[in-house]
């Protein structure tokens, strides 16, 4: 089927459904203003992909008969809710074979140590953020080093190579280097199918230029090449094939307008990654302007 016809068919079938629910989480509608710890029920997105996080922070489960992949373990306080949601999808905790992550800040990786212990999964990461996860605190080079919280360290973290797919059973998930928010920020892509209908997922990491009070993205002497790498990351996300966009903070990709019982927008949007990149570029331009312009 031609891609244009595939997308049209997907849009026609994109009405969101909650197909499975955690028995311990209350039924509630998530919004962009939800707290990071507000629980919600697991829901099926498409194919083998499920949302198992909270209202305010994403955790994504990609299932296969040979083992499952979990993306992000947001905050230790959320682990029990995440584990209940994983099991609500029909998966067993011990069948989670791999945990990967977007970036090593406590709101996305603070629960990984406990999830690793409870599942027995291997943890995979890249670059400086893999080292941060092993240390349990941010390391020099992170724009938020002076304001970031620590978390339980995770050891070992298996190193991955950007662009080289990680295979877990029948799942191939590809890491994309998107340095900027942190030095080792990583986005993820994978393909999921229902019969002959397939979708390309993108879990795009944060592209916001957030820092402590002293960090300057335009300080080329202190951070050589960092701003250029950030701009390249934004361009890289904008160029990805992107049928279904997900993000670590659901509000960044309007997830609660696209999924769940109160959804009002189509879940599938092939232009979503491009739009996200455009917003991120505008935000980075505004940040560099406040710093006095680029060097």
Kindly describe this structure:
The protein has helices spanning 3-12, 79-88, 106-109, 112-119, 127-135, 226-238, 255-258, 272-290; strands spanning 43-46, 49-51, 60-62, 68-71, 96-100, 122-125, 157-159, 166-168, 171-177, 186-194, 197-203, 244-246. The protein is α/β, with parallel strands linked by helices and 295 residues long. The chain has one domain: Ribonuclease Z/Hydroxyacylglutathione hydrolase-like (Metallo-beta-lactamase, Chain A, 4-Layer Sandwich), CATH 3.60.15.10. The strands form 2 sheets. The protein has a 7-stranded mixed beta sheet with strand order 1-2-3-4-5-6-7, with helices on one face. Strand 2 and strand 3 (60-62) form a beta hairpin. The longest helix is centred in the last third of the chain and has 19 residues, at 272-290. It is globular and about 55 Å long. The termini are far apart.
